[in-house]
Structures are given as C-alpha cells and as structure tokens.
Specification:
This protein is mainly α. The protein has 24 helices and two strands. It has helices at residues 2-11, 13-16, 35-40, 44-52, 54-68, 74-94, 98-116, 119-126, 132-140, 142-160, 163-183, 193-196, 201-206, 213-216, 219-230, 233-264, 269-295, 299-322, 326-341, 344-353, 360-390, 393-401, 403-413, 440-445; strands at 425-428, 434-437. The protein has a two-stranded antiparallel sheet. Strand 1 (425-428) and strand 2 (434-437) form a beta hairpin.
Length: 449
C-alpha cells in the first residue's frame, strides 16, 4: 500500500503542482507554478516521464528477484528492495532538478520489483483453496487504496508544508517494513525446490550467506523458463489484455485529478478522486475476487469476468467525462471505477494459475514488467503529449478511456482458447502438488480443487 501511496503522492495536485507561465512578456503577469512542475519548470511530457521512470528499476530487478527467490529467502529479498525504496523516496524529497528526481524515481521501481513477484505466490501458498481469488483481491486492493490515499496525503502535505515533506514522510513510514524483511523467519514457497532440498538453508540465512553458484549456473534454466512461459497462450492473452487495461489505468491514476480539476473546475480534485478511488478500490476489488470464487475459479470464468467488468467500467468512465454536470460525473465515475477495480483479483489470479508453481514468481515478474513497459510507462507521457497538442482534457480523457474496450475484446478472445490446442495447463491440487493435463478444453474448465 505504501508503494502505491507514493504513486498517488507524485500524481496529486499538491505535490505534482502546476506549470508556470515562463513565456509571458510582462514579468508581473507571469505565473511561477507550484509543486514539482513549478519548481523544476517541467513540461507535461517531462512530468509524464516522472510517473514512468520507476520502470527502469522494475524492469532490471523483477527477473533478478524472481530467480533469486529460488535460492534466497523471499522476505530477505523484499527487505533489500524496500531498503532501496526507502532511500529512493527520501532522495526524491531532496532532489534539486528534473534529472535528479528522475534518477530517484528509477530506484523506486526496485522496491516494487522485490515484492510484486514474491508476495502473490506467498499468498497463493497460504490461502484456503476456495478463497484464493478473494485473498489475492484483498492484496491487490492495496493498489487503488494506496493511490487514493496518496492523492489525499499529497494534497494535504503539499498544501500545508511542501511537496518534499511528502516524500520524506513516505521513507520514514517504509523503514520498519524494510527492517522486518531482514529479521523475519525464513520462508519457503512451493515449487522452489532449491530451498526445499537445502537442509541447512535456515542456518545459512542466519549467517547472512547463501551461495550464488546455483543461481548463476542456472542461466539455461531461466531461458528455458522464459521460453515455456511465452509459449503459454493463456499467459500471453491474459498479459496482452492486461497491457491495454493498464495503459488506461496508469494514465488515469496520474492525470485523473488534473483532468477532473480542469474539466469541472474543482479546487479539491485530489480529495474527490481519493475518496472515490478508496471506496471503489475496496468494494470493487474484493467484489471481483469473491465473484470469481463464487462462480468457480476456472480460466474460462476468469476471462468472462475480465471482459465483462472491463466493458462495464469503460462505459461508466466514458459517461463520466461526457457528463456536463459534476454530480453525474461523480456518479458515473463511481460506477466505472467499481468495475475497473473488480478486474484486479481475477487478472492476477489467472497470471498465477496458468503456470507451474515453480514459475509463479517469474510469471508475476514478467507480467508486471510487460504491463508497465507497454502499458502505463508510455501512457502517461503520451497523454501528456496529447494534452500539450490538443489542450482539451475532456477529449484526452475520452480518447484514453476508449482503449478499455480493446482490453475487454482481448480477454474475451481468451474464451476461444478452449476450442484450440493450448498445450499444458497446470493446476494446483489441494495437497500442493503440481500436475498437468493435455486436454486443453478440460483443463480450461477444471475448477481449482
């Protein structure tokens, strides 16, 4: 949640601020701007780059953390990543120009990489079989709730103190969690045979040392795992839909308050978007996981729900930005965000369950990398360029929102896979053993046992 509080903070009007007018001819009429944009004299494109810079650290670190989790205690790896995150957010608060804050935003991605690929498999191991989707939904509920709290926190701290204080406060809040990663009891995750085969793993952890040889010598295994992963058609279709979905969601989370303030002349857009996102994030995300468990957590049902939820969410968000009344804008936005956040549990459940247990960390890591590289990383700067060009936030928001329908169509196409040969489909038994079936139609319809 703190990781996504940071996303909301840097997108909030209180921290992100507004650009000044530095081309005016009469100095007395010049607006000097506010927040990061004003202090560093950023264009909308540069401002959009800040929202995407974390991807550099995420891209480099995600596969590394996923592979090293086979040899190292996952919580130790999370401790390392969150330590880097703590230093990086403090650095953002102490940055002096565009390039320095961009560098620290890159390091923030290392923290996310450490737990985004490891926490979900850990939850999957410990959740009751008939509640796995709901448990994952509660975890991913932290994304919208964190962003929303960031809007509110950034808006308040930015206006009452200054934007730098918000980042320094984040670093202080994260520090105890980084320490916990180092002092917690070692854990093993299913499918990580290297850990289970080592009788002395815990003793080596206590001494602070685990040999890197097995990881470094397993290069061919990593390549083979990646090849198998990208030959998995269920994984590919799921990620393609998730990329289109995240392209919109990422730009929404960054530009949403600014667009709402411009279109509807709201002085408290941070608070409004924060409250709506907290409510819809909690209720919608849990709703999606509970419904998937209720109807049966099969891949077929997952794709059905993903297609329907996304289409309904797109209709709600389009209706919101087409509204001329702020009242109808808020009502339609609530409906749209409710269904959009209902996607979080099912889409990540599919990412975990379409691969063998020993590939879950890699599956989560590569899914996360791809949805950022091709999704929200380019979307924020591109929307910034679009807005620089057309200078119309309503039209920019409508064009962006329409991409949700593409995501819905891609996920709906996943239903066709049950009529074609898709290779192996792996299912976790209640005892935690992995087995496979070559009957693709049966595998796609087989419920989680």
């Amino acid at each position: 949640m703190l990781n996504y509080v940071d996303r909301g903070v840097i997108a909030s009007n209180g921290v992100n601020g507004a650009p000044g007018n530095y081309t005016c001819e009469v100095p007395e009429t010049c607006a000097h701007g506010t927040g990061i944009q004003g202090d560093f004299k950023l264009s909308y494109f540069q401002d959009g780059v800040l929202s995407s810079a974390f991807m550099v650290g995420l891209l480099v670190a995600s596969p590394v953390f996923a592979e090293f989790s086979k040899t190292y205690n996952p919580f130790r790896l999370i401790g390392v990543g969150l330590s880097v995150w703590t230093v990086a957010t403090a650095g953002c608060g102490l940055s002096v120009d565009f390039w320095s804050i961009t560098f620290f935003r890159m390091l923030v991605g290392v923290g996310e990489a450490s737990f985004i690929s490891l926490a979900a498999p850990y939850i999957d191991d410990n959740a009751p079989p008939d509640q796995r989707a709901a448990w994952l939904s509660i975890f991913y509920m932290c994304i919208p709730v964190g962003v929303a709290l960031g809007y509110v926190f950034g808006g308040l701290v930015g206006s009452l103190v200054n934007w730098r204080a918000a980042f320094l406060a984040e670093a202080c809040l994260m520090l105890p969690f980084a320490i916990f990663g180092f002092i917690s009891h070692p854990i093993n995750m299913k499918g990580n045979s290297k850990l289970h085969q080592s009788d002395h793993f815990e003793d080596k952890e206590k001494n602070g040392f685990v040999s890197l040889n097995s990881s470094l010598q397993d290069g061919r295994g990593v390549v083979a795992d990646l090849k198998e992963l990208f030959q998995n058609k269920i994984f590919v279709v799921n990620v393609l839909g998730y990329i289109a979905f995240n392209f919109v969601l990422g730009a929404y989370s960054y530009w949403g308050p600014k667009a709402g303030a411009a279109v509807y002349h709201m002085s408290d857009a941070d608070i409004l978007f924060g409250v709506v996102t907290i409510f819809c994030g909690i209720v919608g995300t849990v709703f999606g996981g509970v419904i998937l468990d209720y109807v049966g957590s099969t891949i077929t049902n997952t794709f059905k729900l993903l297609a329907v939820f996304t289409a309904l969410g797109a209709i709600g968000c389009l209706s919101a930005f087409l509204s001329t009344s702020i009242t109808f804008f808020i009502l339609f936005l609530i409906v749209g965000e409710f269904f959009i956040f209902a996607v979080q549990g099912p889409v990540n459940y599919a990412t975990l369950q379409c691969v063998p247990s020993n590939q879950r960390a890699l599956s989560m890591a590569m899914s996360t990398v791809m949805i950022h590289v091709f999704g929200d990383v380019p979307s924020s700067p591109l929307v910034g360029v679009l807005q620089d060009t057309i200078q119309n936030w309503r039209l920019s928001a409508l064009l962006l929102t329409s991409i949700y329908f593409i995501a819905s169509i891609i996920w709906a196409s996943g239903l066709l896979l049950q009529h074609t040969g898709v290779g192996k489909m792996l299912v976790e038994s209640s005892e935690g053993e992995t087995h496979s079936t070559h009957d693709s139609q049966q595998a796609l319809l087989l419920p989680e046992s």
